[in-house]
Amino acid sequence: MIESAQLRLRAWREDDIATLHLLRNDVALQAQLLARVRGSDAAQVRQWLQLRSSAPDSLLWVIAAREGDIALGYVQVTGLDAIDRRAELGICLAPASQGRGHGRAAIAALLPYLRRTWGLRKLSLRVRADNAPALRCYASLGFQPCGRLREHVFIDDAWHDLVLMEVFLETACPA
Ligand SMILES: CC(C)(COP(=O)(O)OP(=O)(O)OC[C@H]1O[C@@H](n2cnc3c(N)ncnc32)[C@H](O)[C@@H]1OP(=O)(O)O)[C@@H](O)C(=O)NCCC(=O)NCCS
Prior knowledge:
The protein is of the alpha+beta class.
């Protein structure tokens, strides 16, 4: 478990499924994550959680408020490569929990853990160029833009550019 002043990043539990089910089926929210909703039921959400938590190249935490331990969202690390010492980051907060500093606090708590415990050197991600909160959040944590994929995803009848970002953990969270 990883803790910050207000948050806890912890393993998923059965009683998180109702919240995570809503998030996984929120079309607008998943479009921010570059995912297309297929209409998962609770069993499919459980399967996704089990897979992400057990696959050797991925990690997943529920982001919960320390007070009450209620799920606010999730953060996942995928494509974990032990030789290249890099991985990709994805984060999703429920709409009601956005814009309160939780995104930044969750990632800020995660970065030193990924560096020290998993030996990661670099994290990267892809974010829609029109996702201002995410871009600001990542930039404030030391992620830097390192490329752009133009008109890369088609969402809501429009093409969207993606910004590629990366952070070197040694720089973002020195020992
Ligand atoms: C992206 C996300 C993780 C950011 O977390 P958050 O808790 O909402 O953001 P924070 O409150 O930590 O704020 C981070 C920065 O974004 C800014 N911000 C927050 N909401 C904003 C908005 N609607 N418009 C512009 N900037 C915004 C904050 O002011 C802050 O910047 P600052 O320090 O310069 O003031 C969260 O909004 C989220 O889960 N969004 C939906 C899914 C998503 O887009 N995931 C990322 C896909 S790559």
